[in-house]
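Quick question, first post here. What does this chain look like in 3D?
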Amino acid sequence: MIELCKTSNHQPLLSSNAVKSEESVFEHLGTPINREKGDFLLRQGEVDRSIFLVVSGLLKAYYTTLDGKELIKSFIQPGEFIGSLIACHTGEASTFNLVCLEDTTLRRVPFEEIQGGVMAKPEIAGTVIISLIELAIKKERREYEFLCLSAPERYKLLKARNPELVERVTQNDIARYLGITPVALSRIKQRE
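> Answer (accepted):
Ran it through. Tokens below.
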């Protein structure tokens, strides 16, 4: 099982056909929005009851600790959804920030529209179920990697699964995503 996890290839959460299907399912929900690099879609401590579908660009979701340290939760690429489920479902404040790392095109869908769509249209319900399963798989993999793999193994896996992402984000962000310092990442890269 460990070897399988270490060597599995990156698969986008949604295949290109699924992305087209999701876009067609959601094209009548929410509104298209464009954001520039550096724009925030969501700030930790605020309530935004929207789900965002990334059409193009790249987002970073991260936590800020009380002492100002940034911990990267995930990078969100085209075909992926993100939103604070805590804020959407309970109305409580988001626990993370969401910022554009590149100019980004998205669909912003209010959670209430998704809930209404699920009740009215089976294809939306099916899409939401698939998206939630894929989110759970992504979170399970991330948890496994943090608890069971060393930093060099996590870096090797990130490069194997998503080499384009490694080229698109800063080394500081890669280090924060891996849970290590930039100096530690530099040492890992030197040993390769």
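The two ends are 24 Å apart (CA to CA).
Strands lie at 31-35, 40-42, 50-56, 59-64, 70-76, 81-82, 97-100, 104-110.
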